[in-house]
Amino acid sequence: MQLPSLPAVAAATVLALSLAGCAAEEATKTESGAKIVDEGKLTVCTGLPYKPFQFEQGGDIVGFDVELIDLVAEELGLEQTIIDTPFEGIQSGQALNTGKCDLAAAGMTITEERAEVIDFSEPYFEATQALLVKVSSGVSSLEDLAGKSMAVQEGTTGELYAEENAPEDTTLRVFEDLALLQTAVKTGQVDAGINDNGVLYDYVKDNPELEVATEFDTGEEYGFAVKKDGNESLLETINDVLAKAQDDGTYDEIYKKWFSEAPKG
Ligand code: ARG
Questions:
Q1: CATH no. for residue 239?
Q2: Residues 153 and 173 sit within 8 Å (Cβ to Cβ)
Q3: 200 lines ligand 1 (CB under 6 A)
Q4: Mutation probe of ligand 1 site: the residue of 46, 56, 109 with most atoms within 8 A of C-beta
């Protein structure tokens, strides 16, 4: 009996592996062709908490983004499952490109830099940076923070804005999530905090000892994101669902529920 030569064995193994690879991929596609990492589920990465976009309430994760993505999940016949992971790894593309989740919904601003590593949906929300301070802090602008400290959230557009625009001698303190940033301002660990207007206005509603001192006109737009060049089908469904929700009033209804007013414009 002649044993197969080594290269033949190697080739056979490679073939078997690649066939298995195909089979696995087939098993995780929806009828519409969207790729999913976990059968029956739309696995969504987000960085909690980001109220009112996504946050925990009575044991559930709820919010504006969550409801919009529920529409996408419904369209695909899937159930939304949310994975909490630091925002830094979401915006860097790491969470999506390593297959941790199918999409990211995290009140995430569409930027050119991010668009090189992840694919964004059409914009679904407008935002701008804003400054959170204690009422009577005397701080009403970035300039007032000269020689003082400011909290920023890791990996966010607010962090970048502060790095580029805050006075040289402002100490930036980096926090992993929004709640830590807000608490730092509230307890006086820092003199101010920068983050998106939507989340800060929501926070001061329940924390009257704090206020939004000013907004910076950064003209941002949020997008949902999928793996770079990896899931056109899912992206298409997200865009279709968003367009339909905007047309038929569902978007406005969800907006009013979480922001207690109609969308501007
Ligand atoms: N919009 C900002 C950005 O994209 C902040 C987003 C933070 N989101 C979160 N879920 N923590 O950088």
A1: 3.40.190.10
A2: no
A3: no
A4: 109
pLDDT at site 16:
44
Neighbours of 122 (CB within 10 A): 15
What does the DSSP 8-state code read for residue 142? S
Tens digits of residue pLDDT in 65-91:
999 999 999 999 999 999 999 999 999
pLDDT digits (tens, 9 = 90+) for 114-171: 999 999 999 999 999 999 999 989 999 999 999 999 999 999 999 999 999 999 999 9
Residues 238 and 116 in one domain: yes
Strands (E), the chain: 41-46, 55-57, 60-62, 79-84, 103-104, 118-120, 125-134, 149-153, 171-175, 192-196, 210-222, 225-227
- 3-state class of 166 per DSSP? coil
Residue 96 C-beta-side C-alpha neighbours within 13 Å: 30
Give the β-pairing of 171-175 and 55-57.
unpaired
Instruction: Report the residue among 66, 92, 103, 108 best suited for mutation to probe ligand 1: largest number of ligand atoms under 8 A from its CB.
Output: 108
Task: Confirm or reject: Cβ of 118 under 6 Å from ligand 1.
Answer: no
Q: Percent of the chain having pLDDT more than 90?
A: 85
Indicate whether 215 and 227 sit together in one domain: no
Is residue 23 in a domain? no
94 CA from centroid of ligand 1 (Å): 15
145 domain residue, yes or no: yes
State in Å: Cα 255 to ligand 1 middle. 18
